Amino acid sequence: MDIIGVGYLGFETAKLEEWRDYGTGVLGWQVADNVDPDGLHFKLDERRSRFSFWPGEIDRLAYVGWEAVGRQEFLAALDTFDLEGVPYERGDAELAARRGVREVARFKDPVGFQHELFYGQKFAPDSFLPSRPHSGFVTAERGMCHLVVITPEYTDALEDFLTRIMGFRWYGSGAGKGRTGFFRSKLNDRTSHDIAYGHGPGMRGIQHVGLYLKAMRDVGQTYDRVQQREIPMMMTLGQHTQDPHLSFYHYSPSGFAIESIWEMRPWVPELFEPNPETLSAWGHQLVGPILGPSVKKISELGEAAA
After folding, report:
1. Do 241 and 281 touch, CB atoms closer than 8 A?
2. How buried is residue 106: exposed, middle or buried, by Cβ count under 10 Å (0-12/13-18/19+)?
3. Does an H or E element contain 160, and which?
4. CA dihedral in degrees (251, 131, 35, 66; nearest 10)?
């Protein structure tokens, strides 16, 4: 499938006002006022919105939006789903309007996470006005972020679905313990992964979201604001072994971590599958739990609302 990367993310939360203050005051996001008023939406660039938060009783990931190049690629992806017997629901005009896209389809992966495929998201040139001094986010050619989710089951069917059906590239298992997998979309040759799945028996949720910032200063100023507000951190400033990036992790109001990343040099695809001895070359001291409160026991999760 001709997928660029992650185009938007949707969450349920009981902390809408906390997100409004945190998104603008800490991360520098812009509140998008011309989107569905039932939720809280943020801009990171010229697109209508990238992050949407919908009222809910439990904080959780509601959906992952994958961007197809255009209409022909979108239709070809649906043909693949038909051929492979993958259930999906073609979104109606109302859903497309809510997402600000031309067309959208909804489907689930083999371990139960909700995904959406879309193309043609609305945009307005030069419309991003950061809520604090900020150089902006790297979003254009690789998608807007990466994310890591935890699943109670990690199956061969999951890897087959991601690599053979969706056409993602397998990157490796990383340096973590247990069964994990890192994947990037077919058209992404700028980053190591768009999504990663970690096996957490009896657990489900989103572990972190990685945002690429345009300047090292933006990472530093975010770091300062996190410290000033005494927001708990997961990992201190450091560099992963398999990525030439500077980053740190802190916890969002919903309990998943935000990794703020600055690329020290462009990422180049490996000629072989990496198997690093350690997670990081320096720094990244673990100062909080690796799984925040956004990853819950299955018994704690009810039915999703969004």
Report:
1. yes
2. middle
3. helix 156-160
4. -50
Q: Give yes or no for a contact between 109 and 59, defined as CB atoms under 8 angstroms apart.
A: no
For the purposes of burial, counting CB atoms within 10 Å of the CB of 124, is it exposed (0-12), middle (13-18) or buried (19 or more)?
exposed
List the structure tokens of 57. Answer: 């009783």
164 CB-near residues (< 8 Å, 6+ apart):
none
Question: Any residues with CB less than 8 A from the CB of 242 and at least 6 apart, and which?
Answer: 172, 174, 175, 192, 270, 274, 276
DSSP 8-state assignment for residue 88: E
**pLDDT, tens only, 234-243:** 999 999 988 8
Q: Taking every pair of C-alpha atoms in the chain, what is the biggest distance, in angstroms?
A: 53
DSSP code per residue over 6-52: EEEEEEEES-HHHHHHHHHHTS--EE-TTS-TTSEEEESSSBS-SEE
With a threshold of 0.90, does the pTM exceed it?
Answer: yes
- DSSP state at residue 213: B
pLDDT, tens digit (0-9, with 9 covering 90-100), for 236-281: 999 998 888 999 999 999 999 999 999 998 888 878 888 888 889 9
CA neighbor of 263 nearest in space, from 203, 299, 210:
210
Residues in the chain, total: 306
Query: Distance (Å, rounded) from C-alpha 20 to C-alpha 252?
Result: 11
